[in-house]
Write a structure and sequence with these properties.
This is Tetratricopeptide repeat protein. InterPro entries: TPR_rpt. It comes from Paenibacillus allorhizosphaerae. Keywords: TPR repeat. Pfam families: TPR_12 (PF13424). By secondary structure, this protein is an all-alpha fold. The longest helix is centred in the N-terminal third of the chain and has 29 residues, at about 1-30. The termini are far apart. It has helices spanning about 1-30, 35-45, 55-75, 80-95, 100-120, 130-145, 150-165, 170-185, 190-205, 210-225, 235-245, 250-265, 270-285, 290-305, 310-325. α4 runs antiparallel to α5 and α6 (about 130-145) packs antiparallel against α7 (about 150-165).
Length: about 325
């Protein structure tokens, strides 16, 4: 009995220490220090007793979240990512913890979504990809509705929308983004408002409503900066670059592309570095600076090949072909 009591006291002390460690790890990740975040969580896992399942679950979920969110950028450690999330799912199931089970299922959905996206040549899917991603998010949404997890509901609604977007079911995608955004707005979930807003901008741009696209894209960037989440900030700048380029406003486009490149370089994310190079190359090509554009596209291609990302390689090859043909600028 005394032994059990001492173990409980030790676990309570660990619990008091783990919470600030998780906050530090998330802060590391938000500011681009992913390696430091993961190292901290790994060290914490080694310290926590094997029978302290709730503490282990908390640490595994946070590591899994970091791995899943940056997988779209790094295309690395897929086996480790899925192993972490499956272990977290098992622990949540054993603990009968519905909220943490929902978190684990949602992260598995995100991981499967990005794994499918990273093996695709196009953002459009007609071959049945993303079904696992949708299934996990729907399971997570059901649990989150049951336990009243507002933040989680916003998250799952958004991720379900992205699957419909890949399947070109745009009305369904917008419905889910809108529901996600409105719930997040009503309940003060600032972080959860950012991605739906960025996707509103993307859809407006695809429809040719560039003024609306610009409005939403600036709003998404402002929300991102308010939350301090740097890993995805280059994506906001690149979207703004695309819109300004379509408007023929080259200086504004270049400013956002350059900012995206600088942040990506600072974070060390090669995928977003390559995407920024493509955008900078597009601007150079539009200004008929063909040789400089070609150099940017070639550098982007080398990074795409290094990361083994088919979509990024295809985009790089497409641009290189365009500048070879009569020095033509890419269609932007």
């Amino acid at each position: 009995m005394e032994f059990k009591k001492r173990n409980e006291e030790i676990n309570e002390q660990y619990a008091a220490a783990i919470e600030p460690m998780c906050r530090i790890a998330w802060s590391y990740f938000k500011t681009g220090r992913s390696t430091d975040a993961r190292r901290l969580l790994r060290n914490a896992l080694e310290l926590v007793a094997s029978d302290a399942q709730q503490l282990r679950l908390k640490l595994l979920l946070l590591e899994g979240k970091i791995l899943a969110l940056e997988y779209v950028i790094t295309n690395e450690d897929a086996d480790h990512m899925f192993a972490i999330l499956q272990e977290a799912t098992r622990l949540a199931h054993e603990a009968s913890d519905r909220e943490q089970m929902a978190n684990a299922l949602s992260l598995l959905g995100t991981a499967h979504y990005f794994a499918d996206l990273n093996t695709s040549v196009s953002v459009v899917d007609t071959g049945g990809k993303y079904r696992e991603a949708l299934d996990y998010q729907q399971q997570a949404l059901q649990l989150r509705n049951a336990v009243g997890d507002t933040r989680g509901i916003c998250e799952s609604l958004f991720h379900i929308g992205t699957v419909y977007e890949r399947w070109q079911q745009h009305e369904k995608a917008i419905e889910h983004y809108t529901e996600s955004f409105e719930l997040a707005d009503r309940t003060g979930c600032l972080y959860e408002k950012t991605e739906p807003t960025r996707h509103f901008a993307y859809h407006a741009m695809m429809k040719g409503d560039l003024d609306q696209a610009l409005h939403y894209a600036h709003r998404a960037l402002a929300l991102r900066q308010q939350t301090g989440f740097m890993p995805y900030e280059p994506l906001d700048h690149l979207l703004l670059c695309d819109i300004y380029l379509k408007l023929g406003k080259f200086e504004q486009a270049q400013s956002h592309a350059q900012k995206a490149y600088e942040i990506a370089e600072q974070l060390g994310y090669k995928r977003t570095i390559a995407s920024a190079l493509l955008s900078l190359g597009d601007i150079l090509a539009a200004r008929q600076q063909t040789s400089h554009a070609k150099a940017h596209f070639e550098k982007a291609l080398r990074l795409a090949q290094e990361l083994q990302l088919p979509m990024l390689m295809a985009r790089s090859y497409e641009r290189l072909e365009r500048v070879k043909e009569n020095g033509a600028a890419p269609n932007v």
